[in-house]
Amino acid sequence: MSFSVSTRGDVCIVEVEGQLIVGNRQELKQKILDELEKGSRKVLVDFARTGYIDSSGLGVLVSLAKKIREMGGDLRLANLNDDLQTLFELTKLDTLFQISETRERALEGF
Amino acid sequence: MNSRVTPVENRQLDVSIPSDVQYIEGIVEQVVLRCAAHSYPRRHLALNVPVALTEALSNAILRGNHDDATRSVRVRADVDSSRLVLEVHDEGTGFDLDACTEDPTTPENLLREDGRGLFLMRRLMDHVERFSDGGNVVRLILRRA
């Protein structure tokens, strides 16, 4: 598993490759906190190459979303496959995040 | 993986691992492979089994064994064409499963960082139970659809 960070305009894009689970969630959190430290306020997490997410991975996303919103920014999600979409629906976190089908759609109007 | 594997039939898994979350993915992969060999639905392989087992393992490692790598977690999986039975044993004193009923999807809980693990196990498995057997055991059962 790995995380790659890129930028498109003023949006920081973080791609999650592999699983987002208890063993690596802090790595994702720290990468995004580092980007916030550098001034990013718009963060897009792209799950196109993600396997599964556990409750601690979901918890980190919730924690980061709260922090970024407090800073006046936003955390958005893109490219959830059907299983990940179901996971967000089961936990009702689909109501908390703006979720887009593609990265390009997520970037529109960000 | 530096774990002790007990020789068993291919459909079964009996592994003891140190209490370290870095072992979780390897165990999940082994169980998913056994389910795939029995043609479990894709959704089971990609969502139900990996997420529920990851929750059970992380609970055992972080809560049952308090992240103490000198303590072990034993994982037993028995897979056949009708159902998957998972047992995750830790060295803790256990918890009252019936008392853990908080709903993480309510508006007051939705913004909490924690509290979704047991909820997901219950939603993704057909049966979840806990019992003591010289330690704490969580048993998860998933029927092959």
Main attributes of the structure:
heterodimer; A: Transcription Regulator spoIIAA; 6-stranded mixed β-sheet; globular; B: 145 residues; 6-stranded antiparallel β-sheet; 3 helices; 6 strands
Describe the structure.
The complex is a heterodimer of chains A (110) and B (145). In chain A, 39% of the residues lie in helices and 31% in strands. Chain A is α/β, with parallel strands linked by helices and 110 residues long. Chain A has one domain: STAS domain (Transcription Regulator spoIIAA, 2-Layer Sandwich), CATH 3.30.750. In chain A, strands 1, 2, 3, 4, 5 and 6 form a 6-stranded mixed beta sheet that branches. In chain A, strand 2, helix 1 and strand 3 form a beta-alpha-beta unit. The longest helix of chain A is centred in the middle third of the chain and has 16 residues. The model of chain A has no long low-confidence stretch (mean pLDDT 96). With 145 residues, chain B is α+β, with helices and mostly antiparallel strands. Chain B has a single domain, classed as Heat Shock Protein 90. Helix content of chain B is 31%, strand content 27%. Chain B is built from 3 helices and 6 strands; from the N terminus they run ββααββαββ. Chain B has a 6-stranded antiparallel beta sheet with strand order 1-2-3-4-6-5, covered by helices on one side. In chain B, strand 1 and strand 2 form a beta hairpin. In chain B, helix 1 runs antiparallel to helix 2 and helix 2 packs antiparallel against helix 3. The longest helix of chain B has 23 residues. Chain B is globular and about 40 Å long. Classes of the chains: A alpha/beta (110), B alpha+beta (145). At the A-B interface, strand 4, helix 2 and helix 3 of A face helix 2 and helix 3 of B.
